């Protein structure tokens, strides 16, 4: 995607529905070059440039000729700080690119747990993930499977990753209105904070994996 970010086509070409021309949009009257620079800065993880352009009034929702915004690039790259900055300046977490992808969908496809959490907190619609069949529950399960294999992960690294997974699932389940399950995650989060040994962290990881598997089974039953 990084390479694709540099591709562009000249003005005046016809585009498909919902895909904007380069520099066309609410911020076009500012400076078209700034719109492109914002996307390029987001794609190259240049936080300072993104912040400066946003403070100058550059439209964070302006899309390139493939419908991709700065938020699409930052979400795909997993840059949580830039994602939050864009959201704070009015970026739309539900804006679709030319292929129908939202930033949340791209973050899920590229396994960026903290970004998914930030997007959910920023108002991203959870149903945007349904068409790909990859929800935060699926991602959590695959991440936990890796952690349970216990291959060269330090105690702090495992604790941090488990914490990030819990935070993601809490936001996801809250958006779905599953408050009872969210309370169970709150309990797991409290237990995680009290851990001091690898065995204790592993125990929380196993409990979280069981919770995730059960939640996936419930989700499948609801769709029948």
Automatic annotation (TrEMBL):
Could you list the residue ranges forming a coiled coil in this record? 155-182
Signal peptide start and end residues: none
Q: Which GO terms describe its cellular component?
A: cytoplasm; midbody; nucleus
Location relative to the cell: Cytoplasm; Midbody; Nucleus
InterPro entries per UniProt: Ankyrin_rpt, Ankyrin_rpt-contain_sf
* Keywords on record: ANK repeat, Coiled coil, Cytoplasm, Nucleus, Repeat
Query: Highest taxon of the source?
Result: Eukaryota
Q: Where are the ANK repeats?
A: 66-98, 99-131
State where it is primarily located.
Answer: cytoplasm
Q: Where is this region: Disordered?
A: 1-32
Q: What does this protein do?
A: Plays an important role in regulating intracellular signaling events associated with erythroid terminal differentiation.
Its recorded name reads: Ankyrin repeat domain-containing protein 54
Traced from the root, the source organism's taxonomic lineage reads:
Eukaryota, Metazoa, Chordata, Craniata, Vertebrata
